[in-house]
Amino acid sequence: MNVFALLRWSYKEGLRSSAKYSTISSFQGSESRKYVPRRAVLYVPGSDERKLQKIPSLGADCIVLDCEDGVALSRKNEARSKIRHLLQSREIDFSGKDCSVRVNSVESGLCEEDLREVLSASHLPDTLHLPKVESPDHLDWFADKLKSTLRSHKTAEKMRLIIFTESAMSLLKLPAICQRGIELSEETPFVLDGVVFGSDDFCADIGATRTNEAKELLYARQYVVMVAKAFKLQAIDLVYIDYKDLEGLRIQSEEGAGMGFTGKQVIHPGQVEVVQAAFSPKPQKVEWARELVQAFEDHQQQGKGAFTFRGHMIDMPLLLQARNIIQMASVTSK
Amino acid sequence: MNVFALLRWSYKEGLRSSAKYSTISSFQGSESRKYVPRRAVLYVPGSDERKLQKIPSLGADCIVLDCEDGVALSRKNEARSKIRHLLQSREIDFSGKDCSVRVNSVESGLCEEDLREVLSASHLPDTLHLPKVESPDHLDWFADKLKSTLRSHKTAEKMRLIIFTESAMSLLKLPAICQRGIELSEETPFVLDGVVFGSDDFCADIGATRTNEAKELLYARQYVVMVAKAFKLQAIDLVYIDYKDLEGLRIQSEEGAGMGFTGKQVIHPGQVEVVQAAFSPKPQKVEWARELVQAFEDHQQQGKGAFTFRGHMIDMPLLLQARNIIQMASVTSK
Amino acid sequence: MNVFALLRWSYKEGLRSSAKYSTISSFQGSESRKYVPRRAVLYVPGSDERKLQKIPSLGADCIVLDCEDGVALSRKNEARSKIRHLLQSREIDFSGKDCSVRVNSVESGLCEEDLREVLSASHLPDTLHLPKVESPDHLDWFADKLKSTLRSHKTAEKMRLIIFTESAMSLLKLPAICQRGIELSEETPFVLDGVVFGSDDFCADIGATRTNEAKELLYARQYVVMVAKAFKLQAIDLVYIDYKDLEGLRIQSEEGAGMGFTGKQVIHPGQVEVVQAAFSPKPQKVEWARELVQAFEDHQQQGKGAFTFRGHMIDMPLLLQARNIIQMASVTSK
């Protein structure tokens, strides 16, 4: 058995044997899905025409047209119809960006109307963001509504789904929520792609007081990363509130990237550059990844059994990590 | 639908839809239950007459008449009978304080006798503290014994129950323990009201070494807060052992309050003032809460759909948080 | 009931009542099993003759003859046969050390061949190390293969089993994995004895970046300790990569010991001394333990009901902790 066969075998068996969470395999297996970088996740209120017009100049990987917290209750209809128009007309250029929409939560009573109006445009967003997911049931409800909303829609590609965890109970149930999201991805118009840690609602829920250093959130942040990564999902870190303090933002962004987060929410366009730099792969990491993949391909052709690289045995997780880094580097470099 | 209806709907639906933990709703729903502050939780050995007589001068929110660790095995009977006498005679004034009793653990073999003796007084304590809860089964056992003990008792009001989590296995099972406690609150003479983190036994169990900075307990503390708050329970932080170091106590108390703990155990009357200050709502927070509730009531009367306050959309969790702060402020201010 | 009876009762009842995890009792109950210290866990590649010959001079408590990451794919057979020869011939003196073998993971496709070859020696290793345990199923598979491999083997004593947790999903499932390991210990040729935190693979899996301070792993480390200790297992901490930085190693080792880890992986013989010092019981702790056990035995003989020591009520966990410290001290002192 050559190294390629071995690694491939190891990879497949690994997935097959992951018992309870067996549905991951087919999800992960779909190598056709490309990685969508979301280093900076920037919200633009759907009701704010001035801000919507600025989208082409915003450098964030992921632009979120917001129906939720950024929009007053009295202006929900306005937001929906502006977002619908924007999707329909294609007046605004999203090229190279993840064009996404945040609907209101399942419990708000506003979500169904959001879906009906926004998704009646002939062009769908790339990604949907669902806030305040409290239980697997919320995803069942959402999948159901999404299916019936899109019944008459011809969709070429599934939309990605990003879910928010923003309360103590939601964190407690996060493994079950992700598991259900992966299962539903098989049979619904969405594919679960990431988890956002909504720290402000979480702090309000547990009665914590936010600090810039965020020591009070250390467990919650590392736990969210662990659960998200266990299901091969992106993990989006908390907002840095003090948007004028770019040095504090840099420190927190690099810390989050070091913990394993793949991106970070931003509340101001001025935060984008610092954040995206922190979540971009470092040049020496990219070089390492390119050389590793090259070495792997060389060994595969020669049919050699042994495969070490820079003194380390190379296994499938490392190879996958290297490929992600290369893809991330190619997508995020201008 | 006006804002009030919407928020109310959102709140109720939220509870109803929280699937597995559905029993929370009726528990939470009982708005008649008032918030009992327990900023400082002070133990007084039931066998120590001199300390018992000092109770009126102790400023702690919560006075715990102790049958457990503060009482030698040879003096358990003495402690029970002194506590019984104290409850029966009402000689000591507990006004404004949570009058509570800590019995011995389910596994000690002493708990049933504690209940039988202490609760034979015609006046019951406000709150019972149950140490070393290791599994949901312990609560079943305790509920059972409590019911049979109180069979002939005319109780106007349920007692509150505070449980202690003090071992690795107890923390591992804490979500299931809290869930069972909430369920049992429906049908037994207690209402689960809080969780105490017993750090000394926990450290002995996992072989950790206590430091004043308590970095070795960072995960355990933040996890206990998260689980307790997921079930809308109070969370009581660890003891600061070095009772002469008031500055260290202040730092740890403020850190605990910042993490979301609602109070802290104290081992010396000299610790009460520092601790209660740290767990009291800050004046500007109280002002914010009062103005928010006022704004909510104004909007409700005018039937306006939109509701923002100081630039933020106001939702039900924030409104509830504001009400708790006001209640806490009114109860704790002298 | 004298103190001994009470403590014994309390201990037994405690185990019996720990409901779901009831199989722990018989496991824990076997007081015949002695504590095997593994303060420093040192890997020696099975394929490296030069390093194998150095074993007698290596001071580490636990020597791991490695078939896994330390051995290139092309040299797996060589490693297996060298390890087999070493066990068979008893040429190398392991006295006072835990003689153990790390096989390849269940998912590697190499594990069965490792077992067949290595365990065909007439002398078995004391301990087996199983890397990359991702689910309880892995342990079922491993128990099955081990049983059939040893069918014709006359084994006087069970081998100990150390499992590695090295991915996000593995950590998420760690309670279930440990529970299954304890259950399988009843009926298989292994007894689960410890958990190793494999931080490098974990970091690769979650995309974290290792730092010497390891703040990015604070949650994972403390969680692994808590789960391991909930099942009364040893917990082995991460490798300190920079093997020339002995001061950094000392700090991290003492931090790990303070968190409750019982030992630490080392990658270089030069790390052993610092690590073993950090994980050895401090002299004043040993003195405390000896006096406590003496006091306990005195009280037991006198049949006294009360039992306090240095101002603290003594319960069974403290007594057990004291005995472990004494045993550790006697085993680890030269």
UniProtKB/TrEMBL annotation, chains A, B, C:
Sorted UniProt keywords: Acetylation, Hydrolase, Lyase, Magnesium, Metal-binding, Mitochondrion, Transferase, Transit peptide
Gene Ontology terms, MF aspect: (S)-citramalyl-CoA lyase activity; hydrolase activity; malate synthase activity; metal ion binding
Residue positions binding substrate: R102, E166
Cofactor(s) needed for function: Mg(2+)
Matching InterPro entries: Aldolase/citrate-lyase_domain, Citramalyl-CoA_lyase, Citrate_lyase_beta/mcl1/mcl2, Pyrv/PenolPyrv_kinase-like_dom, Pyrv_kinase-like_dom_sf
UniProt main location, coarse: mitochondrion
Entry keyword Metal-binding: yes
GO biological process annotation, one example: regulation of cobalamin metabolic process
Keyword Transferase assigned: yes
Reaction it catalyzes: (3S)-citramalyl-CoA = pyruvate + acetyl-CoA; propanoyl-CoA + glyoxylate + H2O = 3-methylmalate + CoA + H(+); glyoxylate + acetyl-CoA + H2O = (S)-malate + CoA + H(+)
Domain HpcH/HpaI aldolase/citrate lyase, chain residue ranges per copy: 39-269
PANTHER family, A to Z: CITRAMALYL-COA LYASE, MITOCHONDRIAL, CITRATE LYASE SUBUNIT BETA-RELATED
Record family assignment: Belongs to the HpcH/HpaI aldolase family. Citrate lyase beta subunit-like subfamily.
Function: Mitochondrial citramalyl-CoA lyase indirectly involved in the vitamin B12 metabolism. Converts citramalyl-CoA into acetyl-CoA and pyruvate in the C5-dicarboxylate catabolism pathway. The C5-dicarboxylate catabolism pathway is required to detoxify itaconate, a vitamin B12-poisoning metabolite. Also acts as a malate synthase in vitro, converting glyoxylate and acetyl-CoA to malate. Also displays malyl-CoA thioesterase activity. Also acts as a beta-methylmalate synthase in vitro, by mediating conversion of glyoxylate and propionyl-CoA to beta-methylmalate.
Subunit structure: Homotrimer.
Name assigned to this protein: Citramalyl-CoA lyase, mitochondrial
